[in-house]
Amino acid sequence: QFFFPLTHYKIYCININGKRTDFLETAIKINEFIGKIVWGTPTVLLLLGFGAYMSCRTGFFQIRHFGYVMKMTVGGIASGKSRKKGENGALSPFQTLCTALSATVGTGNIAGVAYAIAMGGPGAVFWMWAAALLGMMTAFSENVLGIYFRKRDGSGSFRGGAMYYLENGLGSIGRRRAGRALALLFSASSVLASLGIGNMSQVLSIKESVLSAMGTEAHGIVPVVIGAALTAAVGITLVGGIGRIAKANELLMPFMALLYAIGSLTVIFMNFQNVLPAFCAIFKGAFSFKSACGGVGGYAFLRTASWGVKRGVFSNEAGLGSSVTVHCESDIEEPVEQGMWSIFEVFFDTMVVCTLTALAVLTSGAVYDASTVNKTALAALAFSKSFGRAGGVFVSAAVLLFAFSSMLGWSHYGLRGAEYVFGEKAGKCYKILFILLTFAGAVMDADIAIAFSDTFNGLMILPNLIGISALSGTVLNVTKNYAERKFNGRALRPALSFYSDIQAENEEKCRKSSSVKR
Predict the structure, then answer these.
(1) What secondary structure, in 3-state letters, does 239-302 show?
(2) CB count, 10 Å around CB of 463?
(3) Going by C-beta distance under 8 Å and a sequence separation of 6 or more, which residues neighbour residue 150?
(4) How far apart are CA 436 and CA 339, in angstroms?
């Protein structure tokens, strides 16, 4: 409040009964009401239901062709093929993966898993795995549509995202006006969510983790220093555009993943005698009512924050439609192959990172302290039990890296949303606002802004879910076309783009690629 003295003043409004009420309190109540709707059980069930539907219709593509998916993704990374950048500033598939993962692998992977276990017991982990398995096909569907309906901008670069398949995809089936309205709702919500959940929430997490590691109270000059340092780092990165963001995440993401994996595996190894009992507890408790509710709810927290612990980034964002924006800037011709990167993204986020956190919590015995400590602090407690105070410092460092990379990823999502709603020139204004709010998030109480941004984040799901459901036939046709050509060897014309010029361009690239291979 030292930096924002206007927070001492109140704004009043007149309610429907003609009485004067505090505007902020009224807005918070309205936000809570809307939040319960957009993050409610029906939304979670619809997300899981769509994932189950697409899994069945594609013959569980994510399971039957898992080896092929790993070959096209991890194999491409190892060979260096997926690291090659394309023309007109297009990103490599690996860069799009790292940028998307930077926004999805966040603090929710640490606090969210611990919260799920505390609420539903060890069996909750099984239900996270099951829900993630279905979420792979939701993410796959989004990115297939994203590549299929993406366009080129004035500079020749690819531009796409959920807003493009909402407007143009629904337009192709005679619902253009509805598609345009849904696209605007999605884009506006992504802008507001990026400023809250993608910025101020992450800054708040960084500030709290740093102060916790330092043993310093949340006052004094420290928050100002944190805010200034983050503002400078974010500003330098954003000025360079998506190229610099992708490059930063290409360096940060592997380092973060390796660092956290080493730390988690060390905790698990130090308590190796509890590994088998931990897995027994997971499967034994998986089918109890309490664990099932906790697991699905915990995964939903990671995905949608429905348990009320809404700080940090949601786990894999399958169904949110956010990561489609950066996936569409990949230099790739086949929509299905980009969809495979999203399958790997969900797999890595939940089946790898979240599982490491879960085993660290379970094997260390921290879960037994769930009734005496903050449920979201169980992960930090698990590391502290093994490393002492150094464990808390390690978790704080992990939170700092995860949160900062999440800011970079979300800044791009919000930028594209602002450009879609207000035009290309709005991009500069958005970047300035994002940078300023980075400092504001460190020196002011951002809880209210975060609460509202959660609702806007949820409002991204509703139009996106409508779009991918209405266009599920397109996803199935494109996937079937790819499977017939690649797995069954049929000579079919590839389904690469909704637009004839991009279709012809990509077909030519595919022919050249096939000629080189032969």
Answers:
(1) HCHHHHHHHHHHHHHHHHHHHHHHHHHHHHHHCHHHHHHHHHHHHHHCCCHHHHHHHHHHHHHH
(2) 24
(3) 158, 159, 160, 161, 164, 328, 497, 502
(4) 35
Q: Is residue 103 within 8 Å of 202, Cβ to Cβ?
A: no
Considering only CA atoms, which of 485, 179, 168, 490 is closest in space to residue 337?
A: 485
DSSP string across 395-429? HHHHHHHHHHHHHHHHHHHHHHHHHHHH-TTHHHH
Please give the model's pTM, rounded to 2 decimal places: 0.83
Q: Where are the alpha helices (DSSP H) in 271-388?
A: 275-285, 289-304, 324-327, 335-346, 355-364, 378-387
Parallel/antiparallel/unpaired status of strands 20-22 and 151-152: unpaired
pLDDT under 70: residue ranges of the chain:
1-24, 39-41, 78-90, 102-108, 111-112, 115, 119-120, 212-220, 287-317, 366-378, 444-451, 453-454, 513-518
Distance spanning both ends of the chain, measured CA to CA: 67
In the 8-state DSSP scheme, what is residue 87? S
CA distance 366 to 378: 6
CA nearest neighbour of 320 among 124, 414, 186: 186
| CB-CB contact of 470 with 173 (8 Å) | yes
Give the number of other Cβ atoms within 10 Å of residue 375's Cβ: 17
Neighbours of 41 (CB within 10 A): 12
**What's the CA gap between 82 and 260, in Å, rounded?**
24
Share of the chain above pLDDT 70, in %: 76
- Tell me if 324 sits within 8 A of 160, measured CB to CB: yes
Tokens of 427: 């991009």
Burial 130-153 (b: 16+ CB within 10 A, else e): bbbbbbbbbbbbbbbbbbbbbeee
Token output for 127:
């239900």
Measured in degrees and rounded to the nearest 5, phi and psi for residue 14 equal -105, 120
